[in-house]
Amino acid sequence: METLRSFLFEVCGVNAGWKMEDVMDEEIKVINNMVGSDDHVICALSGGVDSTVAATLVHRAIGDRLHCIFVDNGLLRYKERERVMETFERDLHLPVTCVDATEQFLSKLKGVVDPELKRKIIGKEFICVFDAFAKELENNLGKKPAFLVQGTLYPDVIESCPPPGTGRTHSHTIKSHHNVGGLPKDMKLKLIEPLKLLFKDEVRQLGRILTVPYSFLKRHPFPGPGLAVRVLGDVTEDNALDTLRQVFWYLLEEVQAFGVQGDQRTHSHVVALRAVTSQDGMTADWYHFEREFLDDVVQKICNNVRGVNRVALDITSKPPSTIEWE
Ligand SMILES: Nc1ncnc2c1ncn2[C@@H]1O[C@H](COP(=O)(O)OP(=O)(O)OP(=O)(O)O)[C@@H](O)[C@H]1O
């Protein structure tokens, strides 16, 4: 950072005039120029930072012509739906429809073990739910929604670059491979991607200016396919989703409070803890927990979560590993 600072300000003599407030104002102008005064816009909210900040920004620009949807696919963390909906409605005043599609997702995932197949099934179900939402909106409004907001970030743009020498150029729907499933082709929605020049830490900064609650901005990232990719096997078996929800809850509680701890085990599962730190979301280091912390959290999990009697720790970074362990 020091080298870059000295190169830019001392050698090149540039001004540090770039401000996040300006980015916000400029993006609001761009959105207002793009969206017609009676156009409607939809946005799928995951409860993650990107889609929340993108939706909040668009809401600033066009108000309640923005229509958001949040899907409970039965694969969310403990009390996530309640927490997320409270933030959307009470803190951000975002117009959100919450759809409980738990049965729909879990019935399709029954017996599925392969993580790639899980992702495909989940993506397809998301599309069905989004599609039904858009159709219902069209009936209520008397016209089709014209735009879709996506929380594409700059790393998505970089990672979507075709390999050099292939002669291919950027695809327009740059986020498609990062998305939970892409979009139904006949929706024909134009994209609004207000964060596509920002990195994750910058999106958090923009979120603070937009008064997105701090607790929300600091929320642990969570994959779109949710707990399905964190259960290594059939997610509908053996109460695996609930077990994992509890394990994760204890780990987070401990991370946040670092305080401590029954013992009632029947048959046993192994769970693995994976915690990483990352500034830009492109690379990640495994987090070096202190031994004392690990002792406490492992004891707490084994004593409190029925069916778990072994805890492993994943200490690989990205690369060569990935953030999720599938
Ligand atoms: N449960 C959900 N309900 C509605 N939309 C969702 C849900 N999960 C994911 N999405 C949509 O799919 C997009 C991609 O999901 P993914 O989990 O890959 O998110 P991301 O790129 O980390 O962004 P975010 O920070 O918004 O979660 C989200 O930005 C959101 O628009």
TrEMBL record:
ATP binds at S46, G47, G48, V49, D50, S51, T52. Residues 18-219 form the GMPS ATP-PPase domain. GO terms for molecular function: ATP binding; GMP synthase activity. Pathway: Purine metabolism; GMP biosynthesis; GMP from XMP (L-Gln route): step 1/1. Its EC number is 6.3.5.2. Pfam families: GMP_synt_C, tRNA_Me_trans. It is an enzyme of class 6 (ligase). One of its GO terms (cellular component) is cytosol. InterPro entries: GMP_synth_C (IPR001674), GMPS_ATP_PPase_dom (IPR025777), Rossmann-like_a/b/a_fold (IPR014729). Keywords: ATP-binding, Glutamine amidotransferase, GMP biosynthesis, Ligase, Nucleotide-binding, Purine biosynthesis. This is GMP synthase (glutamine-hydrolyzing). It comes from Gossypium laxum.
